[in-house]
Amino acid sequence: MKNIKLFVLLVSLYVSLSAEHLVEYDYELDAYYSNASIFIDLDPTHEITDASNYSELDIYTDLLLNTFSPNIMLFEASVHPVGIAGLYFRQNHEDIYDEARIEEMNVVKVLTAGYEEPYSLSFFIGRMMVFKNAKNNRVGKNRAYMGYLVTIGDYTIKDNQAHYDKWVNVEFKLKGTREKENSDLDWSFRVGAKIHDNPNFADTIFIGARRSSINYDRGVWSLSYNNAFSTLFAVSADTFELTDAEIILEKKWPIKSSRKVSFGLGLGYLYNSGQKYRGELRDEGINNHQLIFRPNLKF
């Protein structure tokens, strides 16, 4: 009976918010990170800022100055298809997995390294602005946020094996996507902490940054525009010793004939100091140095 009442309450809330146009939806399909999101407008009396004419610096400044005046609440469900594929491959084709090596490198780990959760649920509250399409005022993925993010999950991946672990990630984050007719820009800067229920994983404090830029009018070998980088550094919450460090550099090649399609090739390095794992996970062995290889097609 309680579950029925809760369901009726949620449906009523949804209908009420939808009727007042306070709810929006968005989704993204990608081999590395796919998600579906629900946005709830917390300040319906004021229109969300259209930052179409803002510079990148203006965007960061405006969001920072209004951090403590949230106008949006977001719920997101996400999956990491490549991470899940690595789990499936090792569980169902372990013989092939063990033989998929080049010297000491396991090819599957090279392609899937860096993705530690198969899926997650997130809650965000903070400030948002949008970048409207000049032709039809459509927003889509063209949004920028700054605020507080809580993410939860119940499995953590190590060496393409999932371990039951109720974890929570708390962070302060600046994130955005800006798609123009001839260019795309994505960015993410964050600082936070990750807390594990499984004692074999160390709680960590981290800082990370990612930025990707594509310009379809520039030459395919342009280094200033068609590239991306991603970095992440984490330390143990107990000892402040470095647990892991990751850096990825990516070159992007825009395909002018099809417009809004590009091929990217990322090459990176992941260092694991050994402080990230404890108990039986540490005893089973740790790869201190891991190559990362990430081909990607954006459309």
What would the keywords be for this entry?
299 residues, alpha+beta, 12-stranded antiparallel sheet, two-stranded antiparallel sheet, 6 helices, 14 strands, 19% helix, globular
Q: Could you give a quick summary of the protein structure above?
A:
By secondary structure, this protein is α+β, with helices and mostly antiparallel strands.
Give me the strand/helix succession: HEEHEHHEEHEEEEEEEEHE
* C-alpha Rg (nearest Å): 21 Å
Mean pLDDT: 87
β-sheet strand percentage: over 45%
N- and C-termini, Cα separation = 46 Å
The number of domains = 1
Number of strands: 14
Class by SSE composition: alpha+beta
Globally, the shape reads globular
If helices are DSSP runs of H or I spanning 4 or more residues, what is the number of helices? 6
Biggest beta-sheet profile? 12 strands, antiparallel
| Strand arrangement, major sheet | 1-2-3-6-7-8-9-10-11-12-13-14
Unreliable runs: none
Explain what this protein looks like in three dimensions.
The chain is about 20% helix and about 50% strand. The chain is an alpha+beta fold. Strands 1-2-3-6-7-8-9-10-11-12-13-14 form a 12-stranded antiparallel β-sheet. A two-stranded antiparallel ribbon has the order 4-5. Strand 1 and strand 2 form a beta hairpin. The relative contact order is 0.11.
Give the topology.
Layout: H1 2-19, E1 23-28, E2 34-41, H2 56-65, E3 72-79, H3 81-92, H4 94-99, E4 101-102, E5 105-106, H5 107-112, E6 119-130, E7 143-158, E8 161-179, E9 183-196, E10 204-215, E11 227-236, E12 242-254, E13 262-272, H6 279-283, E14 289-298
Antiparallel strand pairs: 1-2, 2-3, 3-6, 4-5, 6-7, 7-8, 8-9, 9-10, 10-11, 11-12, 12-13, 13-14
